[in-house]
Amino acid sequence: MADTPKVSIFKSFPKNFWTVIVMEFFERGSYYGVRSILSVYLVLSVAEGGLGFSKESVGVITSTFQPLLYLLPIIAGALGDRFGYRKTLVFAFAVMSIGYLLTGLVSTYSLVFTCLILMVVGAGTFKPLISGTIARVTDKSNSTLAFGIYYWSINLGAFLFPLILVNILKQYSYSYVFVMAAVGTGWLLLLNFFVYKEPQKPENTKSLGKVLAEALLVLKDFRFILMIVIYSGFWILYFQQFDSVLWYFKDYVDKTPINNAVNSLLGLFIQNPNWKFDVEHVTVINAGTIILLQIFVSNIVKNKKALPTMITGIALGTIGIAILAISTHPFVFIAGIFIFSVGEMTAHPKFISYVGLIAPEDKKAVYLGYSFLYGVLGSGIGGILGANLYVYFVDTLHNPTMLWITFSMIGAATIIGLLLYNKFLAPKNVDV
User: Fold this and answer.
1) CA 111 – CA 174 distance, rounded (Å)
2) What pLDDT does 207 receive?
3) 195 CB contacts (<8 Å, ≥6 apart)?
4) Domain 13-202, what fold?
5) What does the DSSP assignment read for 161-183?
């Protein structure tokens, strides 16, 4: 039998699939739009349009709300199954939108902290409902393509919103970026009310107690938890892209060569272009790299063993961070972020594959669900650690080179940890 044409596969997706893809695009675009400038906005002086918080206090904020983004989906998935996806999405969009709007309006530390927690409660509730909907409206014939489109929609939002909207709005006021995110998520209430349909409920839904009991089951697996702890070292590096990397970019990187190159190109089409390379474009580099190369990289490593491929990806990411120590030239900076992004897209899909391989046959879904702990640990440690290291090495000693060498050492320690794990603890009865 001939393969099903791609056009037919696209036609096989129901309206509900495309509805949640639009939701995912706008929600992730809003989130990454805010994250692309948040840590800089919070530490900028009031005269420069910021709030003037210390970097250490911002590290506490990011080390609190980012782990929640990884923890909440487990509970939210159970709530969605119990109360219905549409009702749960109403809560998610309303709380998220209010959180974004208020963050842009308040200025005291405690209120900003509270509003960001409100935002992340909405975002964390939203996350499992979209992937859950896709899982329920697709089957074996189209689920791979469906989740590929889902992954692209995330990165497309993370690419376009900071590149275009954030760049324009922050020239007037940083507060407008938060208004943009509030609108970008708030209008999804209309999409939920008038277009989205409640997917068919699964035969067996899990109670909240069952979800928490499964968590304890996974936490008792010492070998699995140790692997997660080791792997989270790489995500300490990843989360620097939203904090210390942005501060370094603003304070040290000379943007002039990039500005001149881009404006020379734009000058072929418009008169007197004035494009500026700024902090919001840092996360654009990461998302753009993934959009361009994920399929290519995935094809290269698809038949490679999971754990060695993870180690290779983490090594590339570590090299990317180390490159930042070489020079403040913008092309060196871009090269570092680009190589780190290639490492990320090499390591992380194989990590998910690895968890699926080593999990007990009757508990694969549970283990995959709780593999999120890498993000909890990586972001929880990364925010506070990154802020304090930046203050010590950069603000106090004026030595950013040592900052990136220190983070590279964390990457190297992660690689050594996984090599030792592979040698002494990795299951011998599976091909990993």
Assistant:
1) 17
2) 67
3) 15, 19
4) Growth Hormone; Chain: A; (1.20.1250)
5) IIIIIIHHHTTT-HHHHHHHHHH
Q: 3-state DSSP call for residue 397?
A: coil
Three-point CA angle 61, 119, 54, nearest 5°: 20
Q: Which two tokens stand for residue 222?
A: 């010492």
C-beta of residue 96 within 8 angstroms of C-beta of residue 126 = yes
pLDDT of residue 128: 86
Which two structure tokens, joined as six digits, stand for 363?
A: 């508990």
Rg (CA), the chain: 22
Each as own residue / partner, the long-range contacts of residues 116-120 (CB below 8 Å, 24 or more positions apart, any chain) are 116/61, 116/65, 117/64, 117/65, 117/68, 119/65, 119/95, 120/65, 120/66, 120/68, 120/69, 120/72
Residues 6 or more apart in contact with residue 431 via CB below 8 angstroms: 305, 357
Give 207-426's CATH code, choosing from 3.40.50.12780, 1.20.1250.20, 3.75.10.10, 3.40.50.300. Answer: 1.20.1250.20
C-beta of residue 386 within 8 angstroms of C-beta of residue 244: yes
Low-confidence ranges of the chain (pLDDT < 70): 1-9, 201-208, 211-212, 215, 362, 365, 428-432
- pLDDT given for residue 151 in this prediction: 86
Position 78 scores a pLDDT of 78
**Residues whose CB falls within 8 Å of the CB of residue 70, separated by 6 or more in sequence, listed in order:** 124, 372, 373, 375, 376, 379
What DSSP character marks residue 304?
A: S
| DSSP labels, 189-242 | HHHHHHT--PPPPPSSPPPHHHHHHHHHHHHT-HHHHHHHHHHHHHHHHHGGGG
Cβ-based neighbours of 358, under 8 Å, separated by 6 or more: 224, 227, 367, 426, 427, 430, 432
User: Angle at which helices 373-390 and 244-252 pack, to 10 degrees?
Assistant: 30
Closest by Cα among 322, 286, 230, 242 to 59: 242
What is the per-residue pLDDT across 357-393, written as a single tens digit (0 to 9) for each? 887 776 776 787 788 899 999 999 999 999 999 999 9
Q: For the chain, which residues make up each domain, given as ranges?
A: 13-202, 207-426
